[in-house]
Every structure is written in structure tokens, then in C-alpha cells.
Specification:
about 300 residues, Arc Repressor Mutant, subunit A, D-Maltodextrin-Binding Protein, domain 2, 3 domains, two-stranded antiparallel sheet
């Protein structure tokens, strides 16, 4: 168990054993939190929680002692991080951060300028590539940190979820999809003229897979590496694209609409690093800054 897992455990207790609320605070999925509890108790052969009708209701005596000890460890850890932040002006160097273009302008337009202004002695080298390509670059140690879209296929990458969202069907206000707000199916989407992000983006591969699972073939007219081009094309043409909902929320022209997709198309952004290699305090600091930035700016 590491610091992250101690945070999971104490957050569950502090939220009255409400796993749904705890998962939202921790920016992870509820099934992932439930799996963590089960695996830890099985591995350590100990029960931390009292259960009633399948729900967590209290701590066992062992759980209460573990909770008290966890608070002490987290307090020491937070003190160490505070010292690090106080001395951040002494941290200098360059960090290579990979960010897919599809999320760079939408999700990082505030975080990157804030980082630059607050940390003039640290140089950020932003590498703009699709999540599929960034995953390979991270494995080859060509970048230090990558913001990757689920699914992450390499086993030697450790990740922390910073954004949980969905991919949606996007169209203009005159499209026939605008007359309904219910989730659109892949069968319905297969009958439309589609334009998609190209195969350098992880979402491209997810879309293709979802159509295959649904047993239908999409009518793809055009693929691009620029989400803003796809959005602009949808403004004036009778076509549909599939993009993260965050993009529609930030689209300045306010001329596009969207509908969820059935089955639900989960879209998550994770901050990722290579496992089992040494990482400097500089990389630790940069990662922590962006994680805190997303926590502060997440939707209520």
C-alpha cells in the first residue's frame, strides 16, 4: 500500500463509507475503489470494514487502528510535500510533458500559464501527439509525463485519473439529432455521415471497437488530427463527429449540440509515468501541480 492507497482508505472513512462520494472526490471509478478494498483485505488477510447487507458501515477494531496510523503517515507526507513546495524555487530543470492536442487547449489553457508564472525556474516542454503515440514515447522514455486517454494498454505504466468524462455525438442545431435529447445508439450513428479524429488518437480506436461490438459499420467520410476542424465542419454540414464532451462545453461559437451515446462511452484522462524507474523531485513536483490544478478546477 502506498500514499495513494492511504488517501483512498481515509477518504472512505471521512465520507461516512459512501463509496460513490469517495470515488468522485478521489477522481477514480467506484468499481476501482471497491476492487482496491477487496484486494487489500485479501492480500493482508484482514478486515478493515464492518459490512451490513453488502455495504460498508463502520471500521473494525483493526480498521480503526489502521485509520489512526494512516492519518499520522499522511500528515508526515503532507509536511514533506509542503517543504518541497516552499523550496520549489530551488527546483530547476526541464520536464517533458506529453499532451494530446484534443485536450491541450480545452483542459490546459489555464493550468499551463499558471505553472509557467508560478515556476519560472522550471521549463515545460510540451509534446503534442495523439494519446496512442504518447504512450509509446513514454515507454521509450522520450517524455517524463504523459496525459493519456483510457484505455492504457502497456502494463509498465502507472496512472492516476484526473478527468472523468464521456465521448458524445456532436452535430449542429439543424441536424435531425437536435430534435431529441436521448442517448443515440451506434446503429443510429452508423446511418450518419461521420468525421472522426484519426488513428493517432486513442478515442479513434475506441470508436472503431464500439462499432464492432455493436455489430454495425460506421460511414466514415473523413479523418483528421485536429478536433477544431471537425467541430467547424459540423457547424455547417449535415454530418456528425464523436468528441469528448469537454470540447463541446468549451466551444466558443456555441453553435454545436451533443447527445450521449448508448452504451455509455466513458472517456477518462490520466496522468501517467513509467513504473519502476527513478523519478526526480522535479518530475514529482510537476505531476503534483497538475493533479492539484485539476482538483481545483473540476466541475462541482
Amino acid at each position: 500500500m502506498d500514499i495513494k492507497h492511504l488517501e483512498y482508505f481515509t477518504t472512505i472513512v471521512e465520507n461516512n463509507f459512501n463509496l460513490s462520494q469517495s470515488a468522485k472526490i478521489l477522481l477514480i471509478s467506484q468499481p476501482g475503489l471497491t476492487k482496491f478494498i477487496k484486494e487489500f483485505e485479501e492480500k493482508e488477510e484482514v478486515e478493515l470494514f464492518v459490512r451490513s447487507k453488502g455495504r460498508l458501515v463502520d471500521l473494525t477494531p483493526a480498521g480503526k487502528e489502521f485509520y489512526d496510523n494512516s492519518l499520522g503517515v499522511l500528515s508526515q507526507y503532507n509536511h514533506l510535500m509542503d517543504v518541497l513546495r516552499i523550496n520549489k524555487d530551488e527546483i530547476k530543470g526541464t520536464v517533458r510533458v506529453g499532451i494530446p492536442p484534443v485536450i491541450l487547449t480545452v483542459l490546459f489553457k489555464k493550468a499551463i500559464p499558471q505553472f509557467i508564472l508560478k515556476n519560472p525556474s522550471i521549463k515545460l516542454e510540451i509534446v503534442e501527439e495523439g494519446a496512442y503515440e504518447l504512450q509509446k514515447m513514454l515507454i521509450l522514455q522520450e517524455i517524463d509525463i504523459a496525459f493519456l486517454i483510457d484505455p492504457i494498454t502497456a502494463q509498465n505504466i502507472i496512472s492516476k485519473t484526473v478527468i472523468q468524462d464521456e465521448a458524445v455525438a456532436v452535430f449542429n442545431k439543424k441536424h435531425k439529432f437536435a430534435s431529441d435529447k436521448e442517448a443515440v445508439t451506434y446503429k443510429e450513428l452508423s446511418k450518419e455521415k461521420l468525421i472522426l479524429l484519426n488513428d493517432t488518437f486513442m478515442i479513434h480506436h475506441q470508436i472503431k471497437k464500439n462499432f464492432r461490438i455493436s455489430g454495425v459499420t460506421p460511414n466514415i467520410l473523413f479523418e483528421s488530427g485536429a478536433w477544431d476542424l471537425l467541430a467547424s465542419m459540423c457547424e455547417s454540414l449535415d454530418i456528425v463527429t464523436i468528441l469528448p464532451a469537454s470540447i463541446v462545453d468549451h466551444y466558443a461559437q456555441n453553435t454545436l449540440l451533443c447527445r450521449s451515446i448508448n452504451p455509455f462511452f466513458k472517456w477518462s484522462v490520466n496522468v501517467c509515468r513509467l513504473d519502476n524507474i527513478y523519478q526526480s523531485q522535479l518530475v514529482d513536483f510537476v505531476e503534483a501541480f497538475f493533479i492539484d490544478s485539476f482538483k481545483l478546477n473540476k466541475k462541482p
